[in-house]
Design brief:
Blueprint: H1 18-39, H2 43-50, H3 55-63, E1 73-77, H4 83-91, E2 95-100, H5 103-111, E3 118-120, E4 134-143, H6 153-158, E5 160-171, H7 180-189, E6 193-202, E7 211-219
Helix pairs in contact: 3-4
The structure holds S-adenosylmethionine.
S-adenosylmethionine (SAM) is lined by residues 29, 32, 36, 55-56, 78-80, 83-84, 100-102, 105, 122-124, 140-142, 147-148.
Amino acid sequence: MTGLSSRTEPASPRKPFGKLEALVRETGKGAIRGLYSIWAATYDKMLVAMLGYQAPDFVARALAPLLPEGEIRVLDVGCGTGLTAEALLAHRKVEVDGIDFSPEMIERARGKGIYGEFFRADVTRPLPIPAGTYDAAISSGLFTHGHVGAEAIPHVLKAIRPGGLFAFSVYWKVWDRGGFSKMLAKLEAGGEIEILHNERESHFRTLKGQQIHTVVVRVTG
Ligand SMILES: C[S@@+](CC[C@H](N)C(=O)[O-])C[C@H]1O[C@@H](n2cnc3c(N)ncnc32)[C@H](O)[C@@H]1O
């Protein structure tokens, strides 16, 4: 298990606000960690039972038929309380590890007894995982406002073997603002990924007008 670093990036002489920007980013992360430390106990009840949260099911349904036969190792990125792994396991028997920066959310996920290993780490930084470890990665609810932008995608792709898959949801309002459209186009143009699936679907059964992209990419580089 890996501890979190709260180190901020040094200000670059060419970017006088670099240090300030880095501090604001760190404060934002602190607030998000604080939110989940409080929310962990009631998260599943509120999202699934009350709102009909669909993102874990969508990414699981998009990924499962594309997985090859045999033993499969999957990394659940921003695993939270484990809803995404639960959704995937309903479709396909796989081994799942989880990564998240909230100890409280990880403890909830651990309590479900469906994960192997957990990594406590910030996914906007290089992951504490050797390159090419996983056959696939899955993520829902992480790429949304105030959370994590497209800068985390190359870190996740590094943990996946060539030919492996990454299935994830992106809240539609951060698709451009969070850099996802640009990042995916750049990775595809550079021959690092192939985009297999990108659909917009309803985020919650009970809230109309809230959408997510469900995306699956294959690591080709
Ligand atoms: C909306 S929850 C999604 C949890 C789960 N995947 C789901 O769909 O229910 C977002 C999760 O991302 C985690 N998270 C947010 N920012 C993160 C970061 N920079 N690094 C690692 N985990 C992060 C939070 O701790 C939280 O567990």
